[in-house]
Amino acid sequence: MRKIKKWIHSLRGRIIIYNLIMVIVVALLGSIVTYKTALDRSKKVIKQSMSQRIEGVSDKFQVAYEEMMNIVLNCTGRKSMNLGSLDFTQQPSQRKQALMNNELMSDYCAISGYGSYISKLMMADKEGHFIQTGSDVGSTDDFEKLMETGWFEQELAKETGDYKVSVVKNPFFGGKGEKMIPIIRPLDNTGLMREEGWVFLGISAKLFEDELARVDSGNTMIAVTGMGAVIAKVETEEIKEKELALITDMLLKRTENSGVIEEKTSSGQWFISYAKSPETGILTYEMMPVKEALNERVIIIRLAGVLFFVCLLLGLLLSVLSSKRIRKPIDLLTAQVKKIGGGDFSRNPQLETDDEIGEIGKGINHMSGKIEQLLKKNVEDEREKKNLEIKMLQAQINPHFLYNTLDSIRWIAVIQKNASIVKMVTALSSLLKNMAKGFNEKVTLREELNFLQDYIIIEKMRYMEMFDVEIHVEEESLYNARIVKLTLQPLVENAIFSGIEPMGENGIISIHVKALENTLCISVRDNGVGIPEEKIEKILKGKEKSKNDTMSGIGLPNVDQRIKLVYGEEYGLSIESKVGEYTEIQVRIPIEY
Asked: What angle in degrees, to the nearest 10, is found between the helix axes of 356-395 and 297-341?
């Protein structure tokens, strides 16, 4: 468990996990989109197939009806077919004409190609004289049977351009179907009223049943009139009559003459393809259960599942490969950091690649180089510091012996009443006491100035008062600021030896102390001979040879180095000089109390 937890929290583990999450999301979305696209396409194909099928059936119905109507129109429009030819009791010539007309009607039925579906084709007058043909057995009382129906007068009363069909029960004995579609038109060639004579054609509903069965779609198919009466149907599903009536009513109310819709009923979800004939009003529709139509969903789901797992495996493989590729330079970085921690600051060129990790590697190499430089500098600084301390110790003499000797000289001077010697010996004694305490401690500015005053007393006597020293501190609080001991004495000493003494006449040394933000600025200025510009940098770097007879043995370079060691590289000395006019040395250290 710990190993698993450690792996999860590792960079490689997180890369693999994050990549896998992304791959899973993308694969899942891809699978869903694939499934939905395939499902939508499958639905589209099914709907197109159903639409083409049902429109084909509807067109066949339309063609069959038009053929039947042409038979009727041929019968009503032919001049030889008049009312006089219907009475078989007339002259032999008329009977012959009646027989010829009867044969002609039979030929019309045969030529149409739908003869077997014409139950009855009858031409009659109002007196009951008629001739007939058709697939149903004829009878002498067929005229009376037709007259006794409740729909005859309604069909005869239809306008010439009214082709809306209705379905009725076959009134003739021996009919092949229980239902028929009647067409009745008056004889146009009589010149009389429509009640004088007419032509009747009965289309068997078997025509529609056979056409529906011939499609063999495996689905429920129904043909109804514009009033919703069922002409024919082929059922493959058990659907309640009430449910079919609701579907029929819904389709008849639609403004579009054809289309494919999805409809949910009490028996399930259906694809319904329909086509309506604007002329006849016949509505033909097909019903397919959605669940059966989309049986291939299983294949689609399997395909989407395979796609998902393939993407997952590819994602896992890519994640492992990419994590290895990323892990290698990271391992190099980790090893380099450990080497640096162990004290090995050597540069590793393998880290400096051209990518983002390579930028980090360059930074680590640069950092290790800087650390190595700093460590070397620190060692050198410590060595220099120790050398300074040794030099200072070497410059010291036994303080107790010196104090006792100076004290004896002072008392001799007092006895002899020599004030100058007393003053000089007192200053020298105080100076040596301070020097004996060491050079590296920090003292207040006031203590540093007091120490400097003792040195100035001695030097003024030595040089016969040939210079004056002016000290100005801008703020009283600065007297309490702390400064490295013996910082100002070498600066004043340099002003005397290198500025005033070579001039050969009286000079002035000015000491000015001020605070600039968080920095203590001390300037020591003399009006001596000045320093050539090319020598200034050499003096600070210790390349200019200094005199060995200085009081402390500490020159300007040592003062600058001490300040930098204690306070940092940004602090130290700076020299400004103009030959023949002045030299000014600036001391910059942070303010400390």
From this structure: 10
Summarised one tens digit per residue, pLDDT across range 380-403 is: 878 877 776 656 555 554 455 456
Give CA–CA dist 22/517, Å, rounded: 56
Check pLDDT > 70 for residue 9: no
Q: Is the dihedral of CA 57, 62, 66, 68 positive or negative?
A: positive
| Residue 586 and residue 483 share a domain | yes
pLDDT classification of 570: cutoffs 50, 70, 90:
very high
Residue 117 CB neighbours (<10 A):
27
Torsion of CA 532, 535, 539, 542, to 10 degrees: -160
Strands, E, within 154-238: which ranges? 168-169, 179-186, 197-204, 220-224, 230-234
Report pLDDT for 31: 74
Let me know whether 476 and 584 are in one domain.
yes
Q: What is the pLDDT of residues 295-313, one digit of tens each?
A: 666 676 777 777 778 877 8
The dihedral region occupied by 464, where left means phi > 0, alpha psi between -120 and 50, and beta the remainder, is: left
Structural contact between residues 134 and 173, judged by C-beta atoms closer than 8 angstroms: no
Q: How far apart are the C-alpha atoms of 552 and 546, rounded to whole Å? A: 12
Establish if 407 belongs to a structural domain: no
Q: Which domain holds residue 577?
A: 464-590
Total domains in the fold of the chain: 2
Tell me if 142 sits within 8 A of 131, measured CB to CB: no
Task: Say if CB 120 and CB 145 are below 8 A apart.
Answer: no
Residues 6 or more apart in contact with residue 220 via CB below 8 angstroms: 233, 234, 235, 236, 237, 239, 286, 287, 288
* Tens digits of residue pLDDT in 399-444: 554 565 566 666 766 776 667 777 777 777 777 776 666 555 789 9
> Do residues 489 and 585 both lie within one domain?
yes
Which of 389, 411, 445 marks a domain boundary? 389
Give the whole-angstrom CA distance, residue 352 versus residue 360. 8
Q: Which of 389, 418, 446 is the last residue of a domain?
A: 389
How far, in whole angstroms, is CA 129 from its chain's centroid? 89
Task: Count, in order, helices (H) and strands (E) of the chain.
Answer: 17, 17
The two structure tokens encoding residue 158: 């239809």
